[in-house]
Automatic annotation (TrEMBL):
It holds the Pfam family IU_nuc_hydro. The lineage of its organism: Bacteria, Bacillati, Actinomycetota, Actinomycetes, Propionibacteriales. The keyword Transport does not apply. This is Inosine-uridine nucleoside N-ribohydrolase. It comes from the Bacteria. The keyword Lipid metabolism does not apply. Residues 7-243 form the Inosine/uridine-preferring nucleoside hydrolase domain. SUPFAM superfamilies: Nucleoside hydrolase. Keywords: Glycosidase, Hydrolase. It comes from Microlunatus panaciterrae. InterPro entries: Inosine/uridine_hydrolase_dom (IPR001910), IUNH (IPR023186), Ribo_hydro-like (IPR036452).
Length: 299
């Protein structure tokens, strides 16, 4: 068996302030063989060049991690699907296809989506055979299942490409969904961040500062914390059994983000994650990185 798990991270990195932590955690994890990071769009409500901004953020994080030239970065689609039958071809979608087609029974591929499912849907539409390969898609998105939940509007990641979500959920690919009711329970406080990674050099300072700054610009009420809602995707790739989950029939999504009857293919609905492991492992790896000596020849 391979000693490292093949992984692709698809991220709308500049959308909010939590993707950054997930990306860093993934890249600092030795058991994850990061085959590529795919910058994703996050709609046009905040920017007309969202995918490009995600690319710039990924490049910055790679630089802060001193991994320039070591991490393949392949741009995803700049806009959502126009409909459920027309892919958005991109280097990111092609990377997913290449790695998926190389999967075997003993060497699976995990593809984590921290934003919309545009690039996964495009890969499926471009090469339907990947649905039959040993590929697991982990998606942070969608509101909680059932009735009586707190969220009545369309969940953000879903809202940026409902057509893509329907393509992926209909496809029958191995799919794990981490809905908003789970990812919103992964909060950290400003004080905790300062205590855990405040002394971790340029990387730690950037992670904290960009999070606090984002809240100051976009949060409309008093707050001193933020959910690291994208980090469960990394924790599940590090330890796939580190969650409580159940199998449910795959739904479809309506225009308002609600669930409709779908293909019925089984998907894995994640209902809770091991937040202690997720946060402690991430903090420990950032602190360890900060202790590593710099290359004296580095510019």
């Amino acid at each position: 068996m391979p000693q490292r798990r093949r992984v692709i991270i698809n991220t709308d990195a500049k959308n909010e302030a939590d993707d950054q932590f997930a990306i860093v955690h993934g890249l600092l994890s030795p058991s994850l063989d990061i085959r590529g990071v795919i910058p994703a769009h996050f709609g046009t409500r905040r920017s007309e060049r969202s995918m490009e901004e995600s690319r710039e953020e990924v490049d910055l994080l790679v630089k802060l991690l001193r991994m320039e030239g070591q991490v393949p970065v392949a741009n995803g689609a700049a806009v959502p699907l126009a409909d459920e039958s027309t892919p958005r071809d991109s280097p990111g979608a092609r990377l997913i296809i290449t790695e998926a087609m190389a999967s075997t029974a003993d060497d699976p591929l995990f593809v984590s989506f921290l934003g919309p499912l545009t690039d996964m849907a495009s890969a499926i539409l471009l090469e339907p055979e990947i649905v039959n390969r040993n590929v697991t898609v982990i998606w942070i998105g969608g509101r909680e299942h059932g009735t009586g939940g707190y969220q009545t509007t369309v969940e953000f990641n879903l809202s940026n490409d409902i057509a893509a979500a329907n393509v992926v959920f209909d496809s029958g690919i191995d799919l794990w969904q981490v809905p908003s009711s789970v990812y919103s329970m992964c909060s950290v406080g400003y004080a905790e961040l300062e205590e855990r990674i405040g002394g971790c050099g340029e990387l730690g300072r950037y992670l904290i500062t960009q999070l606090v700054d984002w809240n100051a610009r976009h949060h409309g009420e008093p707050i001193e914390s933020r959910s690291l809602g994208d980090s469960p995707a990394i924790a599940l790739m590090l330890y796939p059994r580190g969650a409580v989950s159940r199998e449910v029939p795959a739904p479809r999504f309506g225009a308002e983000g609600g669930y409709l009857p779908g293909s019925g293919h089984p998907i894995r609905l994640v209902e809770s994650v091991d937040v202690r492991f997720m946060l402690e492992d991430m903090f420990a790896k950032i602190r360890r990185f900060a202790r590593e000596p710099r290359d004296p020849d580095a510019s």
